[in-house]
Fold each of these.
Amino acid sequence: MTLAGPSDQPVLERPREPSRKNGLLTERVLEIHHYTDKLFSFKTTRSPSFRFASGQFAMMGLLVDGKPLLRAYSITSGYYDDHLEFFSIKVPNGPLTSRLQHIGPGDEIVVNPKATGTLLLGNLNPGKRLILMATGTGFAPFASILRDPETFESFETVVLAYGCREVAELEYATQTVVALHDHELLGPMIGEKLHYYASVTREAFHRQGRITDLLTSGKLFADLKQSALNALSDRVMICGNPGMTLDLRKMLIERGFAEGNSNRSAEFVIEKAFVGG
């Protein structure tokens, strides 16, 4: 299956030869969107030589006084897209994000040409239901995974469980899911397979509570009218704040799940690289 990006989006820029500074690829900002005073996303050009697998991250950032200032950023765009996209938090006085949040079209970022990460479908054993658990900007790698047709070819059901503090913080994920259903090629593949479960903790919303609590209590699956967690058929990917990942890791191990990595596939994987400033 060949994908050329969402049909309702124009081709942003023709592939070009990579420009390098300090051994890093230089990419130009094409678009930027601010969702709240803490969250924003942006698109850049993509050098033809840059390759990544869905769910991976790259060291990305800015040149400051001629020196690279980089942090680990999951790539949210599809592996087939001709642009790169990132989803970022704004950290007060953060060395990188305090600068990155002010970029605009035409500005340059730098990207390490080698992508890596553990949130790969190949690090999971075959299963029937894929559960993606995220908080905040932890949604980023799942945007790419959900844009990959292999995800929906490999699993009968895909659940995206996403928790934020405020309703406005859900916007990027919600827009991504809507665009996937409307996608000319991916939409028919996704059909009824994808279930988006969003919850907030600090505002009135039709679903409230911490994602970890909703999972362990069974309310998440009850709301979706699905069966309870099962290590024999469920596979889980986790990305988000450290407290959430530790709680979910402990809970999954107690329920018979094993953690996978690049050396051994298993029932769940966790992304330990999380942008912090």
Amino acid sequence: MARIIGSILSHIPEILFVAAILLAFLSRKNHSLDRRFLDWMLLLGIGVSYVWSGVFHVFFPNVAASSIGWANSPFQFEIGVADIAIGIAAILSFWRGLEFKSAVVIYIALFCFGVAVGHFYQAAATQDYAANNFGVLLVITLIQMVALPYWLWKSQREARATS
């Protein structure tokens, strides 16, 4: 049982990503599918996931660093606080309008781009293929980097068309 719980806890970002997609399909909100994808991904795929990640960087820096294939450093605290901050903003955006969501999406898209570049560089320069450096989380980061601005754009188009 401890092994199962440990496996679930170590895969929270992936679980939340899939849950966001499923909830977007199942949601009864009066919005388009693109808007529901945007909302649920901001709430779960970014919001809760980034708060989760931030907590590990701040309170369990050795665990967070080793899962990425890095040594612990003061950087863990800084990225942890940044993750928690954007996670909270993303969670709040679930209940806010497209203007608020726009600010969160712009930050996340740029942040994800920087994260992806850094992880590709680490893989190429130092052969760091640790699971959280060059694995499923990198794929999710790349998807979010492209999908969130797309869903925002589609949602804004829909909002303009209906007003």
Amino acid sequence: MLLAGLSSGHKIGLGVVAIVFIAFALASSFVAPRRRPDFPGKNGLSVFLIACFVLFAAMIAAVETFGGESEAKGAESAAGREGPRVTTLKVQESEFRIALPALSTLPEGKITFVVQNVGKVPHNLAVRGGKVAGPTKTPLIPPGQSAKLTVSLSVGNYTLYCSVPGHEAAGMSAKLSVG
């Protein structure tokens, strides 16, 4: 009964468990006493009570399981529609070079730069141009370490550069287009 509900959707699962529970209640209230007037009898009372508790627990478990499924699916679909899309971009910095993945343009919105310093001296990553919302640079990143920078970028052209004095002039910059 539970497997049928899990394989075919939460509404069918709840329906099947409810039908079994209702059928047991009606049968034990109307059908069994007509056939056996002493129902459940001295020997059958314990079996009847166990069956009642098992079916009641199954109904509660089904409501928890299948009810939680529909709420989780609703929350996932709502988050998918309402939540802004975040683009992640991996950036590597080394002595006097910023390496970006091959791309033509980025979509407008939130962009997370995952910056890895593969060089031998500390670097950082800064963003300028267009409309930048959020922090515009990372702290200094020691050699072998990483940092993240999340910004919101509007349509336009941007420059990524290392703001350590002399590094941008030595070639640590890259161009980026959004939109």
Amino acid sequence: MVASLFWISIGAMLLLVLMQVSFVGFYVRWLRKSKNNSPNSDFNFCPRTAVILCVRGEDPTLLECLTGLALQSYSNYELHVVSDAADDPALEMVNSFFGQNDYPKLKKNIHVMSDHAHHRSLKCSALIYAIQQLDPSVEVIAIVDADVAADPEWLRDLIAPLENSGVGASTGNRWFSPSDSSIGSLVKQVWNAGALPQMAAYNIAWGGTLAIKVSAIQKCNLLNHWSKAFCEDTMLASRLQANDLQLVRPPNLIVSNRENSNWNQSLSWITRQLLTIRLHHPNWIFVFLHGLSTGFCLVVPIALVIFLTWTENYFLAVIMAAAYIFFQLINLGLFEWIRNGNLSVLAGRKSVENQPSLGPIKPAFRLLATQFTYALAVCRASCARTVGWRGIQYRIKNGKVEMQQYIPFRETIEKQSSDPEASID
């Protein structure tokens, strides 16, 4: 039994390393294309675009997001801010921002949706509502999250691939660069870094930076699919492919996110990202198995080293310990490979990064903590029957989502004040 587990552990670590090296190698080679990917200075593709920002609650980076959206070099766009309640704190921030800052060239619209349908997420409801309000002359919608710090070329680079008639949508990548070195922030950074190669390999879009042709929305009947969905992005590639359209990921479009998180927030966030794959992506089984394998390779080799040492089988204990250390050193190297590639792209975008100062133990500790969190999150996502998102609880049943009760964000703040354990993540 122990001998079998020994060889299974060695094989599992080897297979996981080979898979991760191939994924990361593909991702980094693709990133290098960014040097020749930016549109030329005489680039003239400029369809009328509606940028849709769905807000709920006071995001700490909302003002930075609004500033970036107001200063885009792309000329033919308008901003649509959508909220689910007129008294939402985010709308107060938006109105205050535009009241104190004058951007005469920016066309902006603020919407408060009236339909809080219970068979989809609030974000899907907000997107459907905003798109239905658009002028028929709008050719492209660009979706952005409030935690995105958009540089001036963000929209221009996002729109550029849509000039190709065979492309229905384009999406960017997110890079977490928290300003603190708390374990929650570091886990979120490391997990997201590891997720980027999988997103590229499995063609998973990111709704925080996503542009879709209006013609593609109509051809793929996306509003109907979104009308009963938890998220808008994870299903997108398969819907486009079914209609002979492509999802393109410009390698020069890495977007910085500077949010800090505690561990509970990071665990909830990772679980929710994985749940969207379970609900809306055909490759969920591969992501699930990868998460389980990561947990297995974190725990079982250490347990074997302890057991083999206790039973005085020192030779096998040393081999297992050496294999485990080698395995984790490769994982650290892969993270740095991804990190350096993304930071190289961000440097080209002139994005200022906050890199927390780490002691000599932190890099290894954050890797182990992330592996544990990932395994826990994938187990939670696989059997989740409810999920919280921005103070709303959703029930998951038979692959469908149902809002249990609509609550305006301001009421969730009051609930959290009376119950400190209530989460509005």
